[in-house]
## 1
Amino acid sequence: MSATPAYRRILLKLSGEALMGDGSYGIDRATIERIVDEIADVVNLGVEVAVVIGGGNIFRGITPAAAHMDRATADYMGMLATVMNALALQDAMRRVNLTGRVQSALNIEQVVEPYIRGKAMRYLEEGKVVIFAAGTGNPFFTTDSAASLRAIEINADVMLKATKVDGIYSADPFKDPEAARYDRLTYDEALARKLQVMDATAIVMCREHNLPLMVFNINRHGDLVRLVCGENVGTTVMRE
């Protein structure tokens, strides 16, 4: 591809729901392959890519059973769901000759390797895609917070949050036709307006480390590449 990337290293935050396609839960193979194709296009530009993935697509299927569970237990179940998604993503990468490395914040060494920052950095420098699973490894923290943490740890230039809409809106655009889309926000504006694009802890971490956050629609073909190449896609959250 002839496009010129604007970033050297990115962290892509994928929700588990992004893998469901039109299903109510689980993994849709065609959807995950399409997402991997988009990631491959970015890697082929010479950009180093790390991914943090959620587990909502799997955990949603067991949510009724978890309704009365101890919160920490339910959170650990959610972390294990992210490991399953990470393995599915890694497997799909083989089809397009991408090398993925899954690192888990929980030790499951028979399945995936543990998170080690130095190894993750080396994999990225070698052109491998690093998939961070199991959140932070701690209950009570979301995968959004894990994404901010990992992005800061690996010195990413930007964090990209993939959603089902083309940016941040003043309200849910699926429910409110009058919802307005923002092109740019400051961290403080995103927090003060309680826009729920990410949890407050994640946004504060981005603010404290001056890590730009960009929100875009993963279902619009080519938007990930356009965003990485510096085009005005989605919503940017950064300092003034």
## 2
Amino acid sequence: MKPKTWLPLLLIGVFLISACAPINAPTTPAVQETISQAVQRTLTARPLTGVTLTVLAAASLTESFQELGTQFEATHPGVKVEFSLAGSQQLALQLGQGAPADVFASASNAYMKSAVDSGRVDPAAAKTFAHNRLVVIVPKANPAGIKEVKDLARPGIKLDLAAKEVPVGQYSLDFLDKADQDASLGVNFKAAVLNNAVSYEDNVKAVLVKVSLGEADGGIVYSSDVSAAAADKVIKIAIPDNLNVIATYPIAPIKDSKNAQLAQAFVDLVLSAQGQAVLGKYGFIPVK
């Protein structure tokens, strides 16, 4: 090969080796920031495709989380948020059996602890993101004439409650324990109320549906369950503050999530001011 042919090739090779070699000269903070910004732009410009984020969430979170899912998808092109909505006890059981998921949002600390105990959630990652209150609901026509908490113990009333394994079911029992100590509600109030229970459901939405259809004279749900749509079908009767029980909602990314960064991003959205505003709109008590 003639010198004039191989010399340019040699120079190109030297240039490439030099470009790949470490640079000993210090990089200024301004340059580092510029490089970081350029890398970030490159990463965010790379659209995701075919990514599904699976969120296991308590049934009472249906409407609020669906809106948050839509917001998340809008800011994460190519990501689809899919929800598995059920009683927290069912979701915790699924996690314990190895069901794939990315995020778990429970209506009770007890079932988040179950997820921690099964090794699916890091205890340090679980954060409280909302609270809720209990209310009594009756059908719009209110055929039994229930007007206050005391009426729940009246003989002949048909009540639909959540099972004790369901967070709202246990919260309801806690409320009845408090009410049982209130002399103004009568003797053996709790026993009388439970004697009127004709059905126990595996999630709070089932209670709402049965009462709204008139299949029961009344039931106990979360305040957030009485949405604008539900308000056309049921009447909400407040439970006094001294008897009420405040529900706590924790959320956490799943430790073995295949989409760890996205899972944490969804959790961050729920905890953000934006997420808290959505939860407040649907009747939850925000934590911020």
## 3
Amino acid sequence: MIKIRKITVEPTDVYDITVPATSAFLANNIVVHNCAEIALPTKPLYNINDENGEISLCTLAAINWGKIRDPKDFEHACALAVRALDELLDYQDYPVKAAQISTMNRRPLGIGIINMAYWLAKNDLSYQNITPEGLAKLHEYTEAWSYYLIKASVELAKEKGACPKSNETKYGQGIMPIDTYKTDVDELAQPVYKQDWESLRADAIRYGIRNSTLMALMPAETSAQISNSTNGIEPPRSLISIKQSKDGILKQVVPEIRKLKNKYDLLWDQKSPLGYLKICAVLQKFIDQCISVNTSYNPKFYPEDQIPMSEMLQHLLLFYKFGGKNLYYFNTADGAGELEMKHVALQVGELDDENCEACTI
């Protein structure tokens, strides 16, 4: 049994809902738009006290895949994440009634992934040249990650009751991700399942689900810095990155740089985002919300440094074919903020004491 202890913190006013007729609001005077990975129902509200409107909030966390050595390892991590976030839903304050009502009715969570690039590197897998065997391994791990998140929420429903809108979810009807995915993705990874979905399906029908949603793959910039992980599911831009925030400048090193420096696929070294899109397609199969999927292109790999619109459209349509829900940004390499660290990465690469424990991240 995993129990979550509540802590006391000083309340802080954050939201100021004052942007009319847009899909945005002000948070500490910063205009905030919906994230690409969140797919939750909303209804218009006509004033800040309107209880008939619906503002959807998604409380987020992420599982560090760099710490996962076996699919079974997901069970404890997923149970802890679901229970912690579910406690937070009741503990936090809601400045707008429509947001509180919606959250209490649906109890949505969005648990994502960080350190995917490290997981690939230490399993000798590549973004750019992902093999069928690599996609099969990814399928096995993603299935376990998804299964244990859903199982944790069903277990909570047994203990505390299902969310009031459980009957509006597919989970409450016993419909699982393996029942709803776009089957074109079977071209990438065969639908071989290792988890006991039938028992979970029966429990979901009987007890309902505590949380209407459980997964969302966000960029995870801040949490990646705190845990020294690679960002979300994306390839790193460099072995050593400079990241700046209001708290200052941070130089971040990819995990196990000495041992795995030649295993990492760097973003701008990839000639095409095709392999990354295949990885995202396998991930999306098991996700009940979406992924913030960015496609990235380096002009140096194209004639006259021009990226053909036809190629970008081809990748967009291919992603749709394999069941991808959202594409976020189409990025191109301009070298800004990265070139100055190349000499540092080269110096790290020249070091030959690969077993130095003090230097292993």
